[in-house]
What we know:
The chain has 331 residues and is α+β, with helices and mostly antiparallel strands. The chain folds into 2 domains: 1-287, paralog of FGE (formylglycine-generating enzyme) (Alpha-Beta Complex), CATH 3.90.1580; 296-325. 25% of the residues lie in helices and 13% in strands. The chain is built from 7 helices and 13 strands. It has helices at residues 111-120, 128-136, 161-166, 181-184, 268-278, 284-287, 290-328, and strands at 9-11, 14-16, 49-52, 56-59, 64-68, 80-83, 95-98, 124-125, 219-221, 229-230, 247-248, 260-262, 264-266. The chain has a 4-stranded antiparallel sheet. Strand 3 and strand 4 (56-59) form a beta hairpin. The termini are far apart.
Amino acid sequence: MSGIKGASLAIGGVALTLGLLMxxxxxxxxxxDGLAWPAAEAGSCPKGMVSVAAGFCIDRYEAATVIVDAPxxxxxxxxxxxxxxxxxxxxxxxxxxxxEKGKVPQAHISRDEAELACVNAGKRLCTDDEWIGVCxxxxxxxxxxxxERVDGACNDRGVSGFNLLFGPGNNTPPExxxxxxxxxxxxxxxxxxxxxxxSGAFPKCKTGLKVYDMVGNLHEWTSAVEGTFRGGYYxxxxxxxxxxxxxxxxxxxKYHDYSTGFRCCAGGDxxxxxxxxxxxxxxxxxxxxxxDKLAKSAKPADKSEQKNAKTAKTKKAGGKKAKTAKKxxxx
Length: 331
């Protein structure tokens, strides 16, 4: 894909250029029953999240998704309908982020889709500063676990399903024309053994706060409006910066492929801003049905008809009285 800078894919050793505080769910929150969650106590975080001293929460694991009935409205969470395959895109679906150990994280997701998935869970995407701060830790290091890369600590030297599926063989990279939207979102890519790992599968790939897989496995979208993902993925954690400094800005906020994933944050001033932008609060006007509006618009006509009918009735009654008077006046 020519003209795109900031490569984020390395295959077979070859670098290729590719295109106010919102109340959070309590620790015992169980998604899917459609009820509102109460405000969390100060300093507490929802289940599956870690409290950060800077005053926000972050998902312990990269996010998977579930399909819900509708976008979140107010403080009421949507109803979970079913699970969603992490190997397929979410375009056209209402999904909610879920952070749990042992789940395959959601790939094939854009920045905007990831943001809505977080919002539906009562969360939001992490800002760049939040993401970097957690990855590097209180005493900043290049990797979540230290300053020097440790082979095998994170899922950063995986197997290229792209080479195997679209290359000429022997793990050789395919022709540049193979890197198109359809192939880059092929659901088979992350199902190749040795590619995408389940969340928490690399126990040494964790920060001091025990937040896992911030380097490798999947790129993670942040809230940067121009479109930024960080941390690298299972084939590359160095082309656009080493470890926690890995940053790709080559793709817009609608872009997605087999390497793009996310995790959510919650709380802080940023939560209030996101809630104001995305969460619709139900109102009486919103609940009004189309038929109700038609009925209201029809009322003036009904009153007019009633008035005309009343006038006609009065005239008719007056005619009867006049006729009776004439009859009574006869000798």
